[in-house]
Task: inverse folding
C-alpha cells in the first residue's frame, strides 16, 4: 500500500470525480436500471420478474414491426443513398479555383449543421407550405397544382432525406476535402507527363486515394443504423404521416414517457441497444482492419 | 496509359459548371432562411405580398420583434436559454478539462479501468425511460439543472481533449509540481492556457449544443416559465400552437395585434433562435473548419 501510494497520485481522483458523478447519474445508474425490461415495473414496492414477456409482446406487435421497417428504410436513405453526395460535393468544390468563391460556398453550406432540428423543421415547414411555400411557388411556375409534402405519406420520407441533405451536405464533405488536400501533387504531375486526361486522373489517382476515407465514413455510419435521426423525425412528423416515419426512438419515447409503459419501452430500448452495440463493435473491427484506426 | 490530348476549354467548361452547381446549392440553403428573414421584417400591411421565394422584405417594420420582446414567456425563454448555455458550457469545459487532465496523467490510479468505463459510456446508451426515472428519483424534475447537466461530459470531446493534453511536454507539468503546485493549479495555470485553441473549439460546440437543446427540456421541465427558447419555438412553429405566443402580455392594442400575421411572427421566432448561432459562426469557422482544412482531420 505504501509503495503503491508512492507511485500513484490519489488526489488525481478528485479531478476525475465530477465527470464520474455525471456518468453515474446519466449513464451507469440508468443502464443498470434497464433490467426493468425483464420486470413489470412498479413505482412502489418490488417489481416482479417476468422474463422475456415484454420482448415477446414487442416482436408480436405489428406496430413495432412497422416501426422497425421505417427505421431501416429511413436509415438506408440517409446513410446509403446520401453517402455519395458529400463526395461529389467535395470533388466539385476541389475544382473551384477562386478562394473567395470557395470560402463563400463553404461558409454557406456548413451553416445548417449548427441549426437545431426545431429551427430546421420550422424553416422546412414554411418552405414546403402548400399555401405560400417556396417549393409550391416553383410548382406554380410550371403550372403544377400545390402539394402538401409534410402530410403526404408518399413524400414525407423524401422530405426527411432532402432536409438531411440540406443540413449535412456541406459539413460532411469536410472530411473528403481534407483527404483531397492531402493527395500528393506529384501524382498528378507525373500523370500529366504521361498525358492522362481529367477522367483518367480521377479514376486512377483521386478515387483510389479517397477510398480509405470513404470506407471509414461508411462503416462508422453503419454503426448508427438504428438511430435514423430522432430529433429530425420528432420535429417533422405529424399525425397524417406518423405510420411511415415513426422510428424506434420516437416509438420508445411515445410508449415510454407519454403512455408510461416503462418496462415495455425499456425492452424496446434494450433491443435497439443490443443491435446497436453489435453494429458499433462490427464497425470498430471493420474500421481497424481497413484503416488501422478504430473508433477508440 | 492511354494518351489523350486534353483541351483546356473542356476543363474550363466543367469548372464553371461545377461552380454554378455549387452556387445553386448555396441558393437552396440560403433562400428558405432569407425568406423567413424577409417575412419577419416586412411591413405587416404588405406581408401578403411576401411569397415563398421572396428574399427581400416588403417595406420595413420591427413590429414582430417588438411583439416578441413584449411577451414575458418569450423573453423569459430567451433568458433561460442564455443561462443554460453559459452555465452549461462553463461546466462542460471545467469538468471535461479536469477529467482529461486526470486521465492523461500516468500516476492516476485505476487508469485502465476508467478508460474502459469511458468506452462503455461511448457505446452503451441508456434507455430514455431509465434516465428519466433516475432524474425523477434524485429530485431534478422541473429543475434547469436536469437540462444543464445533460452531456456535462461528451466522451468524444473528452477524448479529443485528452489527445491535445498528451501533446503538452510532461517536463512542464513535473517542474511545476516540484515547485509545489497542486494538480488544479497546474491544470489552470499551465495546461488550460496551452490548450486554448482546443478549449475554444469545444466550448463553441458545447455552446451550440446547449443553445439548440430542447428535448431534455421538454421531458424534464414542467413549468413553461423555465422553458428554453427552442422549446417555445417548437410549440409555436412545429406544433403550430399560436395562442401561446400572441396571447397575454403584449403591450399592443387589439387593433395592432389583429393586423399581425402568425406566419411573420413565427418567422421572427425562428430568426431569433438562429441569431446567436450566426454570431458565433465566424468563430466556429475560424477555430474548427480551418483547423480541419489545413491540419488534416482531428476527429
Result:
Amino acid at each position: 500500500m505504501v509503495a503503491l501510494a508512492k507511485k500513484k497520485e490519489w488526489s488525481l481522483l478528485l479531478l476525475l470525480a465530477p465527470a464520474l458523478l455525471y456518468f453515474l447519474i446519466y449513464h451507469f445508474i440508468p443502464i443498470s436500471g434497464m433490467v426493468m425490461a425483464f420486470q413489470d415495473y412498479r413505482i412502489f414496492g418490488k417489481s416482479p420478474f417476468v422474463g422475456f414477456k415484454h420482448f415477446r409482446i414487442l416482436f408480436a406487435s405489428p406496430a413495432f414491426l412497422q416501426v422497425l421497417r421505417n427505421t431501416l428504410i429511413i436509415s438506408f436513405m440517409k446513410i446509403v443513398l446520401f453517402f455519395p453526395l458529400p463526395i461529389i460535393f467535395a470533388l466539385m468544390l476541389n475544382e473551384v479555383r477562386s478562394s473567395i468563391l470557395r470560402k463563400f460556398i463553404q461558409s454557406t453550406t456548413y451553416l445548417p449543421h449548427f441549426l437545431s432540428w426545431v429551427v430546421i423543421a420550422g424553416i422546412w415547414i414554411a418552405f414546403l407550405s402548400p399555401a405560400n411555400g417556396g417549393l409550391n411557388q416553383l410548382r406554380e411556375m410550371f403550372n403544377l397544382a400545390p402539394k402538401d409534402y409534410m402530410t403526404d405519406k408518399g413524400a414525407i420520407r423524401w422530405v426527411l432525406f432532402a432536409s438531411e441533405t440540406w443540413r449535412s451536405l456541406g459539413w460532411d464533405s469536410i472530411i473528403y476535402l481534407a483527404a483531397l488536400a492531402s493527395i500528393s501533387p506529384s501524382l498528378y504531375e507525373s500523370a500529366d507527363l504521361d498525358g492522362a486526361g481529367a477522367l483518367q486522373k480521377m479514376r486512377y489517382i483521386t478515387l483510389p486515394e479517397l477510398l480509405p476515407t470513404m470506407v471509414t465514413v461508411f462503416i462508422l455510419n453503419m454503426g448508427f443504423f438504428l438511430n435514423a435521426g430522432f430529433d429530425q423525425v420528432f420535429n417533422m412528423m405529424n399525425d397524417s404521416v406518423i405510420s411511415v416515419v415513426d422510428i424506434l426512438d420516437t416509438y420508445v419515447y411515445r410508449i415510454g414517457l407519454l403512455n408510461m409503459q416503462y418496462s415495455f419501452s425499456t425492452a424496446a430500448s434494450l433491443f435497439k441497444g443490443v443491435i446497436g452495440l453489435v453494429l458499433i463493435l462490427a464497425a470498430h473491427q471493420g474500421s481497424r482492419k481497413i484503416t488501422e484506426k478504430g473508433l477508440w | 496509359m492511354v494518351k489523350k490530348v486534353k483541351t483546356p476549354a473542356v476543363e474550363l467548361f466543367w469548372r464553371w459548371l461545377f461552380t454554378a452547381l455549387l452556387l445553386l446549392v448555396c441558393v437552396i440553403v440560403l433562400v428558405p432562411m432569407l425568406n423567413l428573414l424577409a417575412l419577419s421584417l416586412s411591413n405587416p400591411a404588405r406581408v401578403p405580398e411576401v411569397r415563398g421565394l421572396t428574399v427581400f422584405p416588403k417595406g420595413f417594420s420591427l413590429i414582430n420583434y417588438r411583439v416578441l420582446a413584449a411577451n414575458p414567456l418569450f423573453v423569459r425563454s430567451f433568458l433561460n436559454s442564455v443561462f443554460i448555455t453559459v452555465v452549461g458550457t462553463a461546466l462542460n469545459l471545467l469538468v471535461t478539462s479536469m477529467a482529461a487532465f486526470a486521465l492523461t496523467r500516468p500516476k492516476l490510479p485505476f487508469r485502465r479501468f476508467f478508460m474502459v468505463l469511458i468506452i462503455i459510456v461511448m457505446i452503451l446508451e441508456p434507455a430514455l425511460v431509465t434516465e428519466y426515472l433516475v432524474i425523477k428519483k434524485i429530485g431534478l424534475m422541473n429543475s434547469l439543472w436536469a437540462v444543464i447537466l445533460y452531456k456535462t461530459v461528451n466522451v468524444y470531446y473528452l477524448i479529443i481533449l485528452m489527445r491535445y493534453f498528451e501533446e503538452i511536454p510532461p517536463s512542464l507539468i513535473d517542474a511545476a509540481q516540484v515547485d509545489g503546485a497542486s494538480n488544479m493549479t497546474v491544470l489552470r495555470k499551465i495546461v488550460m492556457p496551452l490548450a486554448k485553441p482546443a478549449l475554444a473549439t469545444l466550448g463553441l460546440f458545447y455552446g451550440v449544443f446547449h443553445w439548440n437543446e430542447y428535448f431534455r427540456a421538454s421531458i424534464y421541465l414542467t413549468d413553461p416559465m423555465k422553458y428554453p427558447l427552442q422549446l417555445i419555438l417548437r410549440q409555436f412553429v412545429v406544433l403550430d400552437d399560436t395562442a401561446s405566443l400572441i396571447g397575454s402580455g403584449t403591450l399592443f392594442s387589439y387593433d395592432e395585434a389583429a393586423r399581425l400575421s402568425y406566419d411573420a411572427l413565427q418567422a421572427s421566432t425562428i430568426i431569433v433562435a438562429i441569431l446567436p448561432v450566426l454570431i458565433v459562426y465566424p468563430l466556429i469557422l475560424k477555430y474548427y473548419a480551418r483547423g480541419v482544412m489545413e491540419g488534416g482531420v482531428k476527429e
